[in-house]
Specification:
The chain has one domain (5-265): Alpha-Beta Barrel (TIM Barrel), CATH 3.20.20. The chain is 43% helix and 13% strand. The protein contains eleven helices and seven strands. It has helices at residues 5-17, 25-30, 33-38, 52-64, 82-90, 101-104, 109-123, 162-165, 195-200, 208-221, 241-265, and strands at residues 21-23, 41-48, 70-73, 94-99, 132-134, 171-175, 227-232. The radius of gyration is 18 Å and the shape is globular.
Length: 266
């Protein structure tokens, strides 16, 4: 089955076999342009929207393979569980803030930036947070990235936000949004402009096994493989059959709802 921890481990091992260097998003932001062109790298980004125990399982798998990744936690209780945040940080992973303050404050810019400052200070109790990432909040009319139209996150000691600071012309973006790897058509906000071009080039994959086969075919033939940012939502990945089926049904329903939202916002 796809979207299980064992499948995720197989993906990591395929990336290792293909010669990828694993870096955090913080590492990427601190690299020079020359360093970025001299490495074949993959950034593992995990958005901890819910069920943080699933994220801990991912963190442990990565640690067993000597891999570091970036974990972005929301401030809400279904994500923000201090013991798990501490545990993941202790495994040498990056901790970041998965902000949604403009949505939480119903579009009030003043209240949102105050909340952002407070929440960022909170997460810095666990890790010296240097990067942040927007939480899509698809049912909200507010895009929290708009917070930076009148504010600058660098004033808060933040060095990077993927939707602003990741060069997707030099790295392929793969995300499990929609519980598949070609689900950007279901995404309200987790998307980048290059995805349509990648689709025309055949660089889209439906399942994790499709990604693994692409990696294996490339390194066995000696073909150049592009740099990657891979985003997962670990709550979607489970080894338990009932939970797996529940997540499948839930995500299928969400995709229908998000498609409706996208069509009516055009």
């Amino acid at each position: 089955m796809d979207f299980t921890p064992s499948t995720y481990k197989s993906l990591l091992m395929a990336l290792q076999s293909a010669g990828y260097q694993f870096i955090t998003f913080e590492d990427y932001c601190r690299m020079t342009e020359q360093e970025r062109t001299q490495r074949r790298f993959v950034i593992l980004r995990h958005d901890v929207d819910a069920k943080p125990k699933n994220s801990l399982r991912f963190a442990q798998i990565e640690n067993s393979l000597s891999i570091r990744a970036s974990y972005y936690f929301r401030i809400v209780p279904e994500s923000n569980q201090p013991d798990i945040i501490r545990h993941i940080a202790a495994l040498q992973h990056e901790i970041g803030y998965h902000y949604e303050d403009l949505s939480l404050k119903n579009g009030d810019m003043g209240k949102a930036i105050q909340a952002f400052r407070k929440h960022l200070d909170y997460f810095r109790r666990f890790y010296p947070v240097a990067t942040i990432c927007m939480h899509g909040a698809p049912t909200s009319p507010y895009d929290s990235k708009d917070l930076w139209e009148t504010n600058n996150y660098r004033d808060f000691g933040i060095i990077g936000e993927p939707y602003f600071d990741m060069d997707f012309d030099e790295a392929l973006y793969l995300t499990d949004t929609g519980r598949c790897w070609d689900g950007f058509r279901f995404s309200v906000r987790d998307k980048v402009p290059q995805q349509e071009e990648w689709s025309r080039m055949g660089l889209t994959f439906h399942s994790t096994k499709h990604i693994i086969r692409w990696l294996e075919r490339g390194w066995k033939r000696g073909e150049p493989l592009c740099n990657l940012m891979i985003t997962t939502h670990p709550q979607r990945w489970t080894p338990w059959p009932l939970a797996w089926i529940k997540e499948l049904v839930l995500q299928t329903t969400k995709n229908i709802i998000k498609s409706y939202i996208i069509n009516h916002r055009k």
